[in-house]
Design goal:
- This is hydroxymethylglutaryl-CoA reductase (NADPH).
- Strands 1, 2, 3, 4, 5, 6, 7, 8, 9, 10 and 11 form an 11-stranded mixed β-sheet that branches.
- The chain has helices at about 5-15, 20-30, 45-55, 60-65, 70-75, 120-135, 160-170, 170-180, 215-230, 270-280, 285-300, 310-320, 325-330, 365-375, 385-405, 410-420; strands at about 95-105, 105-115, 140-150, 150-155, 185-195, 200-205, 240, 260-270, 305, 335-340, 345-355.
- The protein is an alpha+beta fold and about 425 residues long.
- The longest helix is centred in the last third of the chain and has 25 residues, at about 385-405.
- About 40% of the residues are buried.
- A hairpin with a 5-residue loop joins strand 10 (about 335-340) and strand 11.
- It folds into 2 domains: about 95-145 and about 260-420, 3-hydroxy-3-methylglutaryl-coenzyme A Reductase, Chain A, domain 2, CATH 3.90.770.10; about 150-240, Hydroxymethylglutaryl-CoA reductase, class I/II, NAD/NADP-binding domain (Alpha-Beta Plaits, 2-Layer Sandwich).
Length: about 425
């Protein structure tokens, strides 16, 4: 028997061996006693409701940290973003840069705020950003935009499903009018059909302006969904607002060839001298490392190939008021590192799933708006530039971490910065 399986068996045995059958049954059975603490029914944010929640929590030390004077003074600014509010969490914010971006929308040097508790992360992105800037900046291009919602319908058989589709494809104009009646900014840009047996999935794709747009497309699609249920001549046996085909907050392969959010690619050419100066390695070593780890990623079943987009995205999203859960989908993408014909290092990233915006959601919260303001990308008209900066930030991180592995510095950097 393989040693790993022995370990798993032994671990489970050690966890369970100290409990008798009666004790295990007692621990794992449902408990129907009344909770000692029960929150007020109203989830809304008012000074009175916040005070009631803290009376129930009865922890002055925690209250002093979470409901500090600055948070109390700005409580009303959080009321559209949270339920059962009790305060705010302070997370360290560092800056990386300057990061030079030569994009269709982003032009110039950006100092990028990153919110994280992981030591060495900001230092790594800072190094990559400086390297890109010294190389003349990265070229970045926004390739596509679109946010999807995918209602699904179940019919008695394939014949009924086909009849429904035949009706639905003649109503695209009506669907567009209904969807856009719910929003000033969203535009229904495409509709496609997927049939699986007697199930039908309608894929609605929207342009959402400068908003990330998840709530916008949900509300718009729900209006179309209700219109369909009231008007279709072929009634479904079951119908749901989303059939899990959109890829919302999960890694999927479909967006590698399409888009969800904003699709951006960025590239940079770096001389061997700069690679040696900043990363202490060579273009050849970095290309060899990338080839070998691409195979490793394939063996692990990775969707896309990258070193650690999630690090940049989580820190960037939290700092700038994006939906952090979207990192699950946004971290899908492709990194390529090669040696160019002239001996320079060529590196590129392509991220088809950047779910971000500069209006709506958490972008208007005090700290998050301040971070967008530091970038010079707060408010309307800035979301495309923000996406290009975000992709270039991911490129900086890929260069830095690959360089660290090639130079043998990865563990040493974490030891030095995390353990002092």
């Amino acid at each position: 028997m393989p040693k790993l399986n022995l370990h798993r068996r032994d671990y489970l045995t050690s966890v369970l061996s100290h409990l008798s059958a009666e004790e295990m049954q007692q621990r794992l059975s449902p408990d129907h006693t009344t909770p000692v603490r029960k929150l007020p029914r109203s989830p809304f944010l008012t000074p009175n409701s916040v005070a009631k929640r803290w009376q129930i929590l009865d922890n002055d030390g925690a209250k002093a940290q979470l409901l500090d004077p600055a948070t109390q003074a700005q409580m009303s600014r959080y009321q559209k973003n949270i339920e059962n509010f009790i305060g705010t969490v302070k997370l360290p914010v560092g800056i990386a840069g300057p990061l030079r971006v030569n994009g269709l929308f982003a032009q110039g040097d950006y100092t990028v705020p990153l919110a994280t508790s992981e030591a060495a992360l900001v230092a790594s992105y800072h190094r990559g950003a400086q390297l890109i800037t010294q190389a003349g900046g990265a070229t970045a291009m926004l390739l596509n935009e679109g946010v999807t919602r995918t209602p699904c319908f179940a019919f008695a058989d394939l014949a009924h499903a086909g009849q429904f589709v035949a009706w639905a494809v003649t109503r695209y104009g009506d669907f567009k009018q209904v969807a856009e009646s719910t929003t000033r900014h969203g535009k229904l840009s495409d509709i496609s059909v997927n049939i699986e047996g007697n199930h039908v999935y309608l894929v609605f794709e929207y342009l959402t302006g400068d908003a990330s747009g998840q709530n916008m497309v949900t509300i718009s699609t729900n209006a179309v969904f209700e219109y369909i249920l009231h008007n279709t001549p072929v009634k479904p046996e079951q119908a749901y607002l989303d059939g899990n085909l959109s890829g919302d907050k999960k890694a999927t392969a479909q967006t590698l060839r399409s888009v969800r959010g904003k699709k951006v690619t960025a590239e940079v050419h770096i001389s061997p001298a700069l690679v040696k100066q900043y990363l202490h390695t060579t273009p050849e070593q970095m290309a060899d490392f990338t080839r070998m780890t691409t195979v490793g990623g394939t063996l692990s079943g990775s969707i896309g190939i990258n070193a650690h987009y999630a690090n940049a995205l989580a820190a960037f999203y939290i700092a700038c008021g994006q939906d952090a859960a979207c990192v699950a989908e946004s971290a899908v993408g492709i990194t390529r590192i090669e040696v160019a014909r002239n001996g320079d290092l060529y590196a590129s990233v392509t991220l088809p799933n950047l779910m971000l915006g500069t209006v709506g959601g958490g972008t208007s919260l005090p700290s998050q708006h301040a971070c967008l303001d530091l970038l010079g990308l707060a408010g309307s008209g800035q979301s495309q530039a923000l996406a290009e900066v975000c992709a270039t930030l991911c490129l900086a991180g890929e260069l830095s971490i690959v360089g660290a592995f090639c130079a043998g510095h990865f563990s040493r950097a974490h030891h030095k910065l995390a353990r002092g």
